[in-house]
Amino acid sequence: MADGDQQGPVTRPDAGTTAERVPLAQVFLDNIFLLLVLGLAVPIVFYTIWGLLEIASIPLAPPFELPK
Amino acid sequence: MSSLATFRTCAQTGLRVDGAAERMIKVHAVAGVLAILFGGIAAVLVLLTRWPAVHLLGPAMYYRALTFHGMNMLIFWIIFFEIAILYFAGPILLGSRVAWPRVGWAGFGLMVLGSLLIDVAILRGGADVMFTSYVPLRAVSYFYLGWILFAVGALIGVLNFFATLVVARAERTYEGSMPLVTFGAATAAIIAVATLAHGAIIYIPTWLWSLGVIQNLDAGMYRLVWWGLGHPSQQINVTAMVAVWYLLATLTVGASPVNEKVCRTAFLLYILFINLAAAHHLLVDPQLSPAWKVFNTSYGMYLAVLASMVHGMTVPAAVEVAQRKKGLSKGLFEWLAKAPWGNPGFAALVLSLALFGFMGGITGVTFGAEQVNIISHNTLRIPGHFHSTVVAGTTLAFMGLTYFVVPLIFRRYILAPKLATAQIYLFGIGIAIFAGGMTTAGSYAIPRRHWDVQFASSFFQPPIEPAAFFFLGVMGIGGLLAGLGGALFVAITVASVFFGKRVPDVPGAVPLAAMPPDRGQHVPISGTLVLVFVFLAAFVIYYFLNWKWLAAIWYVR
Amino acid sequence: MSIQTLKGVWWKKVDRSEKLWLGIALAWCLVLFAMMPLWHWKGGQNPSFETYRITAADYQAKVEAYVQKTKVGEDRGFPVVAPGPGEDVYMLGRLWQWYPVVKLKKGETYRLHLSSLDLVHGFSLFPLNLNFMVLPGYEYVLPITPTEKGEVYAVCNEFCGIGHHQMVGKIIVE
């Protein structure tokens, strides 16, 4: 499938000219560690912390009144 | 740590392969296949018990076998295999040494030890608590310790992957951006960190509670945090499966992603939003608000579902473009009709994609709507859904990939290639029938995790629709077909690793698809567009049918 | 290909046919999202969020007092209670039964209180297919309105030990 004499990972030769400025979006997506931080922060805030806060705020049952 | 990495150059792919990476792939793959064997035996026992006509096991053994099945499949089989994928997508695709080879062994060792502790605890009757181990159900302490060790071991494997990314960059083993498959694997690794962090947050206190050190663990809090482990652990599967789709498309038809920006942005949406939908396990729980439920179950306004729908288009599109470039361009579907259906990797790709999308994805999003969950939660609709995603989707894709791992990493030819192809179809079709039967039975309110659907020993005997029994029978037949397919998978791979002819170290010894000629022409994806619109139509119909069924039950308002 | 590293810029324009699908898929996702708030506003079935913390002992005392006051008969050894329209009715789940049996009237609304005295249970009205979770330490209030006459059964659908499959209760709608 690839050139047998080329060692290492195969690089696609026509993936754009290297002289172009790399768009910010591409730089962002290439930064795995930034993505790791975001990928932890978003669920921990919206799922875990928000959820725990709601559970912590559940009120106590009011005093019980029998039906008349 | 070790700068004495020994490399070989793969004659088939030209890739520079660190021996340490290969060893890690091998041991994790072997552990995974052992787990699927154990889980598969338990699966057949559970199946033959839930099929009322057979009702094989007694209650205690059924609940035990079900716990064993869940742990070995949902956690051991799939996570061992995923760590193997990370050792491929990181070091090997980037031509780098493994960052911490000895630490990698420590991680593997912990995973093995943890899984043994858990399996022994279950088999000895000390952990009849299901895969979810909901507090206050209590297991023996070493069951929870097993979870902690397994999670730490897996986390080590994941961190080794990230460290390898750093090493590869620093040592300039590649230029430019990492390949799409590596990026997909990195997405899975990020999700894995979130998973394992929640695992630590919940299992450390639960273990201490089982030891009597902590007195009370709130059941509502446990469910919230546990599902922060339980659901993302399955989203690692979705992401790894999608990365494997791109890999199989490349290996079987020489496909390239049509637009990297689209595919990678879709993975970004997974990174940001896919874990939120752990909330769909809590939609009918008392302790959380509708606002929390609606926002989280929607994966943040369904943006992660959008990502899946994107991959569901870009993967077939890549295949279509590659095939059309080879000249298979007649009409809407010649590219598909003349595709290598006899190649087990291609068969796995197509079946996994179609079944995950049509059966798993549609039911998942539908049952995950806050209110539709009222007519779904804890019925057989739920395991019907997740067998369509984790088994027909992820496991089938991983099986297809294994038929490349054996010749490329273990360097043995598959012993019975036609049987391997038949195995993929048998398993895929079997699981589809199984899941279809199960999901439909669930719509008659048949409960999951339940030993006696005829309620023979209960105070009251609800009458059961005869149709429900019919679908349980369909489930039984499909499950047996799938069980046979699973057994064949284990037999073929194990036999090939030990007795397969050795693959000679010459280029072309393993047939891998070549990249098709590119004359810069614009290639249409009209066939793919038809397929995705058919998918959308099925989605719309099933989705609104469920709201109609919801409207027919009692009011809750 | 998907296993090749990429040199240069790959952040490129999207093809028209891909854009078409992206747009339609996004629109469908927004429909999916909108359905949920819409149903809260206009629909008849929505998970409630009236929840209180309570100990098992206190909840059990509540239910017993309620049963004493409102009992109208017996069924298979279980007391049968019959709340009036708009009233509160209390059920508990425990290993391995739902208690008491409840008698309701079609078309009337009741405030059904649910809690567990021990483990997590699943309250599943069979064969309607109405499912909610019942947790120890939490009192969940569901405003329900039965829409058909007949008998429905409260099946437990959350694993709760060796007697889990025996756990069935009853609601009669007249």
Write a brief caption for the model:
The complex is a heterotrimer of chains A (68), B (557) and C (174). Chain A has 68 residues and is mainly α.
Topology, pairings included?
The complex is a heterotrimer of chains A (68), B (557) and C (174).
Chain A: E1 11-12, H1 24-30, H2 32-56
Chain B: E1 7-9, E2 16-18, H1 19-50, H2 59-94, H3 101-123, H4 141-170, H5 180-210, H6 219-253, H7 260-273, H8 290-297, H9 299-325, H10 334-337, H11 344-367, H12 381-410, H13 417-442, H14 466-499, H15 526-551, E3 555-556
Antiparallel strand pairs in B: 1-2
Chain C: E1 5-6, H1 16-42, E2 50-53, H2 56-70, E3 71-75, E4 78-81, E5 88-94, E6 97-99, E7 101-104, E8 110-116, E9 121-126, E10 130-134, E11 138-145, E12 150-156, E13 168-173
Parallel strand pairs in C: 4-7, 5-8, 7-13
Antiparallel strand pairs in C: 2-11, 3-4, 5-6, 8-11, 9-10, 9-12, 12-13
Kindly provide the radius of gyration of chain C, computed on alpha-carbon positions and rounded to a whole number of angstroms. 24 Å
Alpha carbon gap, first and last residue of chain B: 61 Å
| Strand percent estimate of chain C | 35-45%
Number of helices of chain C: 2
Tell me the major beta sheet of chain C.
Answer: 7 strands, mixed
Oligomeric category: heterotrimer
Strand order of the largest sheet of chain B: 1-2
The secondary-structure element order of chain C is EHEHEEEEEEEEEEE
Number of E-state strands of chain C: 13
Question: Could you name the CATH homologous superfamily of the largest domain in chain B?
Answer: Cytochrome c oxidase-like, subunit I domain
Residues in helices of chain C, as a percent range: 10-25%
CATH-defined fold name of the largest domain in chain C: Immunoglobulin-like
Report the CATH C-level class of the largest domain in chain B: Mainly Alpha
Kindly report the CATH topology of the largest domain in chain B. Answer: Cytochrome C Oxidase, Chain A
